[in-house]
Amino acid sequence: MKSLLRNFIRFSYAILTYALFPVLIFFWILKGIFNNVYLDRMTQRFGFNYPDLRGGSVWIHAVSVGEVQATIPLVNQIKSRYPDKDIIITTVTPTGALQVKNIFHNTVYHSYIPFETPFTVKNFFNSIKPCIALIMETEIWPNLYNECGLRKIPLILVSARISLKSLANYKRFLPLFRETLSHGILIAAQSKIDAERFISLGADPNRTWVMGNIKFDFTLPKGTVKQGEIIKENSFNNRPIWIAASTHEGEEDIILDAHKEILKNINNMVLILAPRHPERFQKIKQKLSSDKWEYKSRSDFEKTHRKCEVFLIDTIGELLLFYAASDIAFVGGSLLPIGGHNLLEPASLGLPTISGPYTFNQKEMTNLLEEADALKIISDSRELANNIITFHSNRSESEVVGERAKAIVENNKGAISGLMRRLDDIFPEKQI
Hints:
Layout: H1 2-34, H2 42-45, E1 57-61, H3 65-70, H4 72-81, E2 87-91, H5 94-104, E3 109-112, H6 118-128, E4 130-136, H7 142-150, E5 155-160, H8 164-171, H9 174-180, E6 186-189, H10 192-200, E7 208-210, H11 224-236, E8 241-247, H12 251-265, E9 270-275, H13 281-290, E10 295-297, E11 310-312, H14 319-324, E12 328-331, H15 344-348, E13 353-355, H16 363-371, E14 376-377, H17 381-393, H18 395-411, H19 415-426
Parallel strand pairs: 1-2, 1-4, 2-3, 4-5, 5-6, 6-7, 8-9, 8-12, 9-11, 10-11, 12-13, 13-14
Helix pairs in contact: 7-9, 12-17
């Protein structure tokens, strides 16, 4: 009976994906018309033109920029242990694809993840021929997971997490997710709470481990700090700098209001503004112009002049360098209920860091930093401005806060070594 139910669920889901396929095609083409970056290799989303890899490749899926960044220690370990294996990273977003290129250059393959139909999924697997699948964080794709099960490809959810909000959404379709997680999937959860949530959705307790977050095993690229110092000196004349990173629509207004107040107290301070989504760059330029801000952008950058108040990052893949050039960091996606973005990078650089109240996608890191008094949580432009001014005026205290954050990162490393030991257990002959 259980088998019949599973087959029915799987069949029903397959029919649904085929029914939605024309809608997805139309949506993606329409998206590409308004932003041609989405036209890049669009056929891969429809099940064609994947890299034709030799058998036994390692497939890693990372939805976008933050997840791609988190793969760095994993990719480095796999390259070291299994140098003969092809590695392919799939993403959903074009920004994620660009991040793969910027970080790994030509040392790994890249493809967009196919739309979730049995046809596209089969074509994808037939081309890349993976012998293991590693899915970053929380990406649950029933047909992809089922295909791994059919082909007996070990599938591991790496640094797996489920927010309380996501758990509630998944439970609405509990039979589907119980079926999806029934294929012998291995779950390397970030925390005990995440492990329990996966088990409540149907994951096997004996194949669910608490492994921590491999993001903590992130190592700054060689020369990052020095490059940041050079940028600060040569491009900004060593002016005080605060950065607002990974911002979303609706946050820039709050950030710019804060910067107005900051300039009343620190008249030579520069705001580096780094929006999350490239398609918004032009709109933000228009806003800065209409609001009479003295600004420069990275794409037409020469050297900031004395009056420059805002510096807009309108390029991809350089955020870390501009963190390194900054004195204080604000991490966006947190002033609105988006869930927050990566706190690890500014913490790794020892920056005093500020966040909004909505950090449910970064709860573990937020909690660790808050408990160590290494993160300031604000809710509006006034509080943001006050904290920037305080950090600037009390350099010794800001350095202490930054060092606390850096210590949190160092003290939580080790997830990657635990994960690699598990891989060795799964593949005792090292046949990944």
